[in-house]
Hydroxyethylthiazole kinase
Amino acid sequence: MTDTPDAPDTAAPDVRPGEKLAAMRAAAPLVQNITNYVAMNVMANALLAAGASPAMVHAREESADFAAIASALTINIGTLSPEWVASMEAAAASATAHGKPWVLDPVAVFATAYRAEVGAQLAGLNPSLIRGNASEILALSGAAAGGKGADAGDAVATAEAGARALSARTGGIVAVTGPVDYVTDGTRGYRIANGHPLMPKVTALGCSLTGICGAFLAAGETPLEDIAAALAFYGLAGERAAQGAGGPGSFAVAFIDELAAVTPEDLAAGARITPA
Amino acid sequence: MTDTPDAPDTAAPDVRPGEKLAAMRAAAPLVQNITNYVAMNVMANALLAAGASPAMVHAREESADFAAIASALTINIGTLSPEWVASMEAAAASATAHGKPWVLDPVAVFATAYRAEVGAQLAGLNPSLIRGNASEILALSGAAAGGKGADAGDAVATAEAGARALSARTGGIVAVTGPVDYVTDGTRGYRIANGHPLMPKVTALGCSLTGICGAFLAAGETPLEDIAAALAFYGLAGERAAQGAGGPGSFAVAFIDELAAVTPEDLAAGARITPA
Amino acid sequence: MTDTPDAPDTAAPDVRPGEKLAAMRAAAPLVQNITNYVAMNVMANALLAAGASPAMVHAREESADFAAIASALTINIGTLSPEWVASMEAAAASATAHGKPWVLDPVAVFATAYRAEVGAQLAGLNPSLIRGNASEILALSGAAAGGKGADAGDAVATAEAGARALSARTGGIVAVTGPVDYVTDGTRGYRIANGHPLMPKVTALGCSLTGICGAFLAAGETPLEDIAAALAFYGLAGERAAQGAGGPGSFAVAFIDELAAVTPEDLAAGARITPA
């Protein structure tokens, strides 16, 4: 037995995800989220269940003021408008000026010219972390996606290379989430194998993960490992919620329960993080 | 046993709802929804559970671009603003120009002068389907509702006549949903008796049905029968979800589970569709 | 046995909460809510489950028209914009002009200068009820909050004094909700001890309570007692939902079920209301 919840012999001993979860809950960080309308409620509930304190503050008249007092900021481009984009930029600048971490979630940045423009603009404002799926990270990195003939392994390798390139450009961390997550600071990286196939069948679980990442960044001191821990925590909650779920509806309910129920010890034992 | 999930001796043999559900799931159509804030999350989850791919894209800067790549569009006037109305009109025009079906959901169109104006404007843009409750369809059709003395049977007959009149005017299909649903192309029609009294006790289930209708239209080839199948599918999921539900909260969760669980065979056996 | 659901020997015999719940359900009042994006869905479901009829109508083009036909109006400043503020002011003026009660929920009014300004402005428009937590009521009352050295008892006393001062200023009722709720008309008051610690772990349950207060005001005739009854009803549903809940996710689902399940008799027996 050790005096911490993380056993010393995990595959990625530097991450110590259990300790990071405990630290996040002890800090109960105030996380400001400018997110899309679809995600607002579930994201707030996910943050509350995990032990953080969410604030959904997006008005241009107050977003920058609030970013100065929050412990972290997250910005999601899922449902845009020009007013909101102005508010996002002001909030991101305020977070940076006050030394607060901020996270960009470039939802469907590849889908329209407007999203591509806004996504590139926000990515230029020094996000501490960009979290997206493979298509989003590749689109934002400017890398060409694998051709039709590319197999799944090639696609993963391409996405990871895109993440490193994007990280090098922004100077922040980049996370690609999917069946296996990958997070990198441009040089070092981790793969996280936690998760469950029901997770993408519930809307806004990716968006909500962005909030959880913000909470771990706010409370942590080693950002790359903070995010590896956040991703493992979220995936483990999904694995546990899937046990006994009767479909995506009951899974979504159990998932919120599990974000509250997973202990630091559970996470230390259940995290599947490997250096990459 | 037949080689399809639909038995040949149903009351409405042309509908083949099981086949239509299977076709929708095989296509997993991308359905763009411009809907109200109350409904966005549950509508996205309903579409995901049923097997479609939802996208909640409403910004004026991108709604028309997105309608060009989506397989269907749905527009709901539940929470309006002038910017959104402009976006709705652009998206509807784009859908029509690109040969994509689009569905209008005239929520509470009778309640204010603003809604009446916007509803009439959108109804003039060739919706493939208008889906509403009896009061909404009657208000949009311009028909006078039954007087205080009218009994329930008269009210149903009036709503069905209003639906046919509205269909004749727009050139599209019109569906009136309620305890028994009715769908018509102005000439032919079907009544669908599936459903459960708990459904109207959960907010946004009507709005979400509009999305499901869009998914069936996107994947189908006989619009009147596509909608009859969609209505039966939705109602059957409600009937199954009500079994064991402890109230509207647990019903809403089970309903999402059932949208995923109902098989084509279940629907072929459980659909209660009759020509009307 | 008496002929009403309220026993004559409760600590606050004038409240008769069971009768008030029965009256609200019999009236099924149409409650218009201008609320934040996070709360819209759960607030609508809470009102439906409790037996009222919610309408989420906030557009400037129609909010005042709708307030004229609704039975009550609630306004929540959780997610603001200048357009919405104009709509809120028009709706509040319309409600007052038409003799309809309206409720103000000053969410996080202390957090930014913009919120403070909007909160003060709306509080000046004769709200029938202001409902907030202690920090919100203190901020709006202009009272200084207790210093760091103040103990919990002092903080409660300060909040109750702030509520009375705010009530005297607005001429309406003020409710401070927390572990024990307090409601006052500036002179008389009640404390309500119902509730459960899981309630603040679910987002928007405070916002939704504002809607329930609107429903009880719409149906009642003694506003101070109407609100005491509404607070007891809501807290009792929370107590019952917590039995068997596996965490905040399943609690939130059971809570909606319980809003529908609590009977007037249950409330008469379970309400913990004392004059204060």
